[in-house]
Design a protein that fits this description.
five-stranded antiparallel β-sheet; 23 helices; single chain; alpha+beta
């Protein structure tokens, strides 16, 4: 009884499967057929749309040509000039008859009706033509659709010149059923001219038959939107795909051409196919019943075994082999199923490994690292433990990639991964986050443990690599964040370790521990980087000028332009904060050009007011990489009419030392313009005398760190005096910045320094304040000169 019942279920199942498969096949064929027909008909509508556009424009061009021929006809011009209405009407009738126009009319130069062939009232014709007349007055001609009574007419309006404008002549053709029928003859698609206003559809003309045309009047207006989309449209019992395109209708809104393709006609050839599929499905069901009855008895046991094996595979158990005895196809199937089970298990393991590991290094990837961090968080939250997150980034890896190639760089990454794995304990995790960035998770690690481990890792990484006959030394920076000190979730710990990494890179310290408050600083930097680009537009940036005094004459000879930023919300932002951000974001070139342009503008104004000063402008290290800077500077000098010799470009010694050869080439290009060049912050960039000799500079500025605390006999005094003597021996002008006390000024005068700059003389001032200060300084200097001259005369 059980065997019979099981066999019956097998038979019923097979019949059901066949029937369902046939029904699904039928449904798929039905859906695919309908979709295919709809897509083909939709494509046909899009093609028809392009044909309609050409068809419509070509008819308009012909109409415009006919109107132009009439306007140029000498006899017609004579009739118009006569002012005789019968004569003008006769001329209109004759030409309209020749070109097959159904409407024509004549307007005065002011647009008043003069003659026409339409039965419509003259004032109605004149009102209908008014928008066309405005277009023609603007463009010299006009083509559009107007309403004359119950008719839609496509009109072309052109001027009648003799040689002055004496009238406007318009001819037109009915925009009706015949026009739509002509288009159907070309494309096989129906065309209807409708308006849809206030939810009401009005059919003006159509190639549809009478019943379909009446039914189209009841179509919802929202189904006819001229948005370029193919829509389904039911017209009575008929079904269409439609594509609406707006038409220019002068004097009325909402006119569109509705292109329609019949879905019923397109689907008709497939109806027979559907019946054949149904017949085949019935035959297949009968055959399945016979086959199921014959095979059901022999399939029960082996199929059951295979079903059990399949359920084990479904549950992820690949350890039990499939055992079906015999030499028939079922046994072969069982053997194949067993092989498939083993392959699926192996493939699943490979997929899981690839999903959680980096293909190049074999290390866990970012997703796996985050998962391990979450597990560590759960454990530590329960037992109160701690762990450290280290993010490591290789230095100069892009240069290795660009110079030695991607394959070599991949080998470097693999070697770095191997070294990191060797230097960590078994319970630590080493993962590759992407690019040249790695992450280490050190469980049960304190701050001291983490920093010691960083030192060991860096020392191990810095050992030379021998790859493919190339010996290479690499370096890295590491950022460290600790749980729970620096964060209680994965995102926070990763972000703060990354911030610490940025700190390590900024100061070249190799390792940096996250410092509380750096999140806010990081967010502030992001805010400033985003707002800096808007600072110029908002007028938040301004220039201040600080004078440079000639020590021998005690007169101001130069001023240095200094950029200041007053943020609308954060207040004053120091240049030491926003200039590095501008360099990092690539906005420094725009800032430098802003300073050059506005500083030269101020200098030009001062010159026109009788104050002739040298102007010093600072250049960033990134500016030396701007190949277009010399051309821009030359253009600015010409535009503001400032002599190049009045401009001093100051470049820090450290900026030049980044790439000495390239920097010298750029300085030579700038020097060729005629400007003077100065090394700023001299004494802090570790340049050699040989490099200094190569630099095409005119001045050196002693860094303020040596000047601010300058006293006789100090180390600073030795450095300052030696720098002054060195500069003079090399033919350079020497400037001391940061002068704040009279004793320091006295020593500089004793050492024969050329110029001095600092708060002893003046803080940075605005342009107008600087002008007033310089005038006052010049007045005092002249008075002192007169006093000295008078004193010298009396003594003589």
């Amino acid at each position: 009884m059980k065997r019979s019942s099981f066999q019956a279920r097998i038979v019923a199942l097979m019949i059901a499967v066949v029937v369902v498969a046939q029904l699904v096949t039928f449904g798929v064929v039905q859906v695919a057929t309908g979709r295919g027909v709809s897509e083909a008909l939709g494509e046909e509508l899009h093609v028809g749309q392009r044909v309609w556009t050409r068809f419509y424009e070509r008819r308009g061009e012909q109409l415009l040509e006919n109107a132009a021929v009439l306007a140029d006809d000498f006899g017609f011009k004579a009739a118009v000039a006569s002012g005789d209405p019968p004569t003008m009407r006769s001329a209109l009738a004759n030409h309209s008859s020749r070109v097959g126009a159904q409407a024509s009319l004549l307007l005065s130069p002011e647009g008043d009706w003069m003659a026409g062939l339409s039965d419509a009232d003259a004032s109605l014709q004149q009102a209908a033509m008014r928008p066309l007349l405005r277009q023609a007055e603007a463009e010299g001609y006009a083509v559009g659709v107007i309403r004359l009574g119950d008719r839609l007419v496509r009109m072309a309006l052109v001027p009648v010149l003799a040689p002055e404008l004496i009238a406007w002549v318009a001819i037109g053709i009915d925009f009706g059923d015949e026009f739509a029928t002509d288009f159907r003859g070309v494309t096989g698609l129906d065309a209807s001219f409708v308006t849809a206003n206030a939810g009401v559809t009005q059919v003006h003309a159509s190639s549809l038959g009478g019943a379909a045309r009446v039914a189209l009047q009841t179509a919802p207006a929202e189904q006819l939107g001229p948005d370029g989309r193919v829509r389904k449209l039911s017209v009575g019992t008929a079904h269409y795909l439609s594509l609406a395109q707006p038409l220019t209708m002068t004097g009325s809104d909402g006119l569109m051409v509705l292109l329609q393709g019949s879905l019923d006609e397109a689907m008709a050839p497939y109806e027979t196919l559907k019946y054949r599929i149904l017949a085949l499905s019935a035959l297949a069901a009968v055959l399945a019943l016979l086959v199921a009855s014959l095979l059901g008895r022999n399939l029960s046991r082996p199929i059951g075994q295979l079903a059990s094996a399949a359920r084990r595979v479904q549950a992820g158990d690949y350890s039990h082999p499939v055992e079906v005895r015999g030499g028939d196809e079922i046994a072969d199937l069982a053997a194949a199923f067993g092989s498939m089970q083993g392959e699926i298990g192996a493939r699943e393991q490979r997929i899981l490994h690839q999903a959680h590991h980096d293909a190049l290094t074999g290390l866990p990837n970012r997703a796996h690292a985050r998962h391990r961090m979450e597990q560590a968080l759960q454990r530590c939250s329960l037992d109160g433990g701690s762990f450290a997150v280290l993010i490591l980034d290789l230095e100069r890896f892009k240069e290795i990639n660009d110079t030695l190639g991607h394959a070599f760089a991949d080998n470097v990454l693999a070697e770095v991964a191997a070294r990191l794995q060797l230097e960590v304990s078994d319970n630590a995790l080493v993962a590759r986050l992407g690019g040249d960035q790695f992450m280490l998770l050190l469980e049960e690690a304190t701050q001291r443990d983490a920093l010691q481990r960083c030192n060991v890792l860096l020392a191990h990484l810095r050992r030379p690599l021998d790859l493919r006959g190339t010996r290479l030394t690499i370096d890295a920076s590491i950022g460290v964040a600790l749980y729970p000190d620096h964060g209680a979730d994965v995102e926070t710990l990763l972000r703060r370790a990354d911030i610490a990494l940025d700190d390590a890179k900024a100061v070249h310290s190799g390792t940096a521990l996250y410092r509380p408050g750096r999140d806010e600083m990081h967010l502030r930097q992001l805010t400033l980087m985003g707002d800096l680009r808007l600072g110029i537009e908002r007028g938040e940036l301004s220039l201040r000028f600080q004078p440079k005094m000639d020590i021998a004459t005690a007169r101001v000879v130069h001023v240095e332009a200094l950029l200041r930023w007053t943020h609308a919300r954060l207040g004053s932002i120091g240049p030491d904060e926003f200039i590095p951000l501008a360099e990092h974001s690539g906005f420094i070139h725009e800032l430098t050009r802003y300073v050059l342009d506005h500083a030269l503008l101020c200098n030009s104004r001062w010159r026109r007011q009788g104050v002739d000063l040298g102007l010093a402008v600072n250049l960033s290290a990134m500016d030396l990489l701007d190949a277009d800077l010399p051309d821009y500077l030359r253009e600015c000098l010409d535009r503001h009419e400032v002599p190049a010799s009045k401009v001093i470009l100051e470049v820090t010694e450290s900026a030049i030392m980044r790439d000495v050869d390239y920097a010298i080439r750029m300085l030579q290009r700038l020097r060729a313009i005629g400007v003077r060049l100065a090394i700023d912050d001299f004494g802090t960039g570790y340049s050699s005398l040989a490099q200094l000799k190569r630099m095409p500079v005119d001045e050196i500025k002693i860094d303020k760190s040596f000047v601010m605390q300058l006293v006789e006999g100090s180390d600073d005094a030795v450095i300052v005096r030696s720098t002054i003597e060195l500069g003079h021996n090399m033919g350079l002008t020497v400037i001391a910045e940061g002068v704040e006390t009279e004793p320091a000024m006295a020593l500089l005068r004793q050492y024969r320094c050329d110029m001095a700059q600092g708060f002893l003389f003046s803080p940075p001032l605005g342009a107008e304040e600087m002008l007033a200060w310089c005038r006052n300084d010049l007045t005092l200097a002249e008075a002192n000169d007169l006093d000295r001259a008078a004193t010298g005369g009396s003594q003589g």
